[in-house]
Amino acid sequence: MALSTQEMLLALRAPNAHWLAALVNALDEALKDPGFSAEHRALVQQLLAAGIVPASVARAAEARFERFEDSFAEMTPGPDEQDWGGQAVTEVTSARPKLTLVVSAA
After folding, report:
1. How far apart are the two ends of the chain, measured CA to CA in Å?
2. Where are the beta strands (DSSP E) in the chain?
3. Statement: the pTM of the whole predicted model exceeds 0.70
4. Fewest CB atoms less than 10 Å from the CB: which of 21, 49, 89, 102?
C-alpha cells in the first residue's frame, strides 16, 4: 500500500501521533546516513512485518543506542576546559523516558 505525502501529513496531525512522528524523524535521520545500509532497512522492515521487537533485540538496541548517545557526550567540553568566547559553558541534561513496548492481544 503506497502512502501519499498528504496522508502522512494528515496522520501526523493526530493527537496520538507522537510515536509516528518520533519514528519518522529517526527514519529520516537514518536514511541520510550512508552507514544505514539496505541490510539495515530490510531488518527494520522485518520488525515492522513481525509487529514485535524480541526482548533480547530491544535490550541490545537500547545498550547500543546508549553508546551512540555517549559518543555525543564525549564531544562536549568538560568542566575543566576553558569557556568559549567569555560565555560560561553549561551542561545540558536530557531526561529520556524509559520506553516500554506494550502488546495487546487483539
Report:
1. 22
2. none
3. no
4. 102
Confirm if 82 and 88 have CB atoms less than 8 A apart.
no
C-alpha span between 46 and 37 (Å, rounded)? 14
d(CA 51, CA 32): 25
Nine-digit cell at 94?
536530557
Which of left, alpha, beta for 74 (phi over 0: left; psi -120 to 50: alpha)? alpha
All three cell numbers of 54, joined, read 524480541
> What's the pLDDT tens digit per position in 52-102?
999 999 999 999 999 988 887 777 766 655 555 556 556 666 677 777 777
> What is the phi/psi pair of residue 74, to 5°?
-70, -20
> How many angstroms separate the Cα of 32 from the Cα of each of 21, 23, 58, 69, 79?
17, 14, 23, 18, 33
